[in-house]
Amino acid sequence: MSEDVQQSVGLAIGSALSENNEAPGETRTACDPRARPMMSPERQADVLLRLAKAVGQVQGVSRMVNADRYCVDVLTQIAAAQKALDGAARVITRNYLERCVTDAIEGGDPLIYDELMRVIDRRR
């Protein structure tokens, strides 16, 4: 991957992950990272490890493509990267259900059901 592409991806990821940054058209319900940490340090470490593995696998895919490797090998590496991202998404989804959804339901927030349906639809 070229440096320009890496820099663009890094900027996009950094922007997407910046504090209190919401995607266009998105609203938050009960989760407020200013009130308490979004997840436990152990869970955060688990997610970050899974993401680091995915980054390494994606970089491996880039090297494989640059080296003109066999398509099946490249596809296998892509599947591994997707599995690592899916694992991170499962951990984050569980955290969302345990923290955000539970807090919203206990707080009587009726918007949580619409938000939860959007989350479920995206995970399919």
Short summary of the structure?
The chain is mostly helical. The protein has four helices and no strands.
Overview of the structural elements:
- 71% of the residues lie in helices and 0% in strands.
- The radius of gyration is 17 Å and the shape is elongated.
- The two termini are 29 Å apart.
- The longest helix is centred in the C-terminal third of the chain and has 36 residues.
- The chain has a domain of 84 residues: Metal-sensitive repressor, helix protomer (Methane Monooxygenase Hydroxylase, Chain G, domain 1).
- About 12% of the residues have low confidence.
- The protein has 4 helices and no strands.
- The protein is mostly helical.
Topology (elements, then pairings):
Blueprint: H1 3-17, H2 41-66, H3 71-106, H4 112-122
Proportion of helical residues: over 70%
Distance between the amino and carboxyl termini: 29 Å
Strand content: under 5%
What is the count of helical runs? 4
* E-strand count: 0
Order of helices and strands: HHHH
CATH topology of the domain at 41-124: Methane Monooxygenase Hydroxylase, Chain G, domain 1
Spatial extent as radius of gyration? 17 Å
The helix-and-strand class reads mainly alpha
CATH superfamily of the domain at 41-124: Metal-sensitive repressor, helix protomer
Biggest sheet statistics: none
CATH level 1 class label of the domain at 41-124: Mainly Alpha
CATH architecture of the domain at 41-124: Up-down Bundle
Overall shape: elongated
Low-confidence stretches: 8-22
Average of pLDDT: 82
